[in-house]
Amino acid sequence: MLAETQRLLWRLITAPEGVAAALAGDDTRGGGLRAALTRSVRGDDRLDAAQRVDIYANMYFFRILDVLKEDYPATLALLGEVGFHNLITDYLLAHPPAHFSVREAGRHVPEFLAAHAAADAHPCAPDLARYERALNDAFDAADAPVLTAAALAAVAPEAWPELRFALHPSVRLIECGWPVDALRAAADRGETVADLLSAPTRLCVWRHELAVFHRHLDALEFVALADVERGATFAEVCAAASELNAADASRQVADALVGWLERGWLRGDS
Amino acid sequence: MAGFASGEFPALGYGVGLRPPHYGHVLETRPTVDWFEVISENFLVAGGRPLDVLTRVRADYPIVLHGVSLSIGSVDPLDRDYLARLRALAERIEPAWISDHLCWSGVGGHMVHDLLPLPYSEEALAHVAERVARVQDALRRRIALENVSSYLRFGESALSEWDFLAALAARADCAILLDVNNVYVSAFNHRFDVGDYLSGVPVERVAQFHLAGHSDHGTHLLDTHDHPVCDEVWALYARAVQRFGTLPTLIEWDDHIPAFDTLHAEARRACAVAARARRDDDAGRNAAAAVAADHRA
What mean pLDDT is reported for chain B? Predict the structure, then answer.
């Protein structure tokens, strides 16, 4: 009976159009939802059973909507209040929260948005959401020591070709079709967020100490970092880079490596 | 029963819920508040600022871990990953104790992220008691469970909420976190007597009080944690102190969060209300004893 009660409440609380509409829809199909509710929940002269469940239904939707507005502020600004509200209504039907932390409730928003009608009007929105998710992930990703130049200097030259670097746990690489970081910056300043002209964009998001940063990458640096992320050896990283820029790849990778060390993008030994 | 073991629920005094808007203020000014309670789930993360803040605050203050996702009443299996992470956080932070709510928060593998009431039935009692015992084994400590505000009641409830709470605490050997505001809110919503509730809760099981504000929607009160504690809840808190004693008390404020000083002032007021309630109680007892002595003489 406890299981039946909980399943009934779950069904009504998460009904997209509210409890009354769910009951009315079920009535027309000849279902027993209303009878089950009447058996399970006591109403009174102040609020009937459906109105009482509806209090929880409203709180369910708006609590998660508020969390996702905080997680995706620029996506919200781009789509507008109504557009974002409708997106999340549809999203929660496809991806009801399944993790103990409400912080995970919006995990699948970027992919869901990519296949949603909202993206037709705002083609850069899925990439923007991907970037905002990366900012959230970098914020509380695992702490880890960073690889220092001194530690790297201790590696024997003959060991370099087989060396495998690892990215710091907070590093996120994003390749997309719009410079979406400009939209988030505008939203953070309280400025208007409007659709962008497309432009190939490669971003690295990371946390240094407790603050989250981002930086634009050129094609060669992005490919090299993506290879590092995949666990490639340094020789493989250089080989892949040379396919992009045969003349000068090794020097460019070496220059980039200096920056990675300075910014703490590589993980050191713990 | 003998009550709690020494040191299990230490007399922390008057604390406030630590929320992100106050992190900077607390770390910079080290206010004289007695202790902080934090939402456990906000710190069940891999790293970064939240854990850094909690570690630094913990260096100077007692901390209680207050969870919202245990979902102790759900028919779903207990979330082993959640319990393992909570235990790891407890090992790192060494909280004074760990609490959560007498409720369920999801079913079928999904979460509502809310504190839903249970039917107060023998079936639910047996189900929850067995799960509390397993959680206490997993966390290697006694936990405190909080009474929630509720907006609906179930036809299958055969017990009052306070009888259910008392039976659960006895059967599962757990503590009770008595949220005075939630008693007040649910009493209005379900038309029960707050006095019946207080007198039905066993004195030796209550480890802590919560105080918070709510909002009035006419047909019902909503536990919104976005207002100061109202006069009626202060009065009920005084009655609770007279029945259960001076226990660690915490002010919760989660929405429209005011300046830290406002929150701190509420904690100081709780201290003053509790002290006056004890004095009034003592005066009442002394007067009654005097009347009894006169009567015998």
Answer: 96
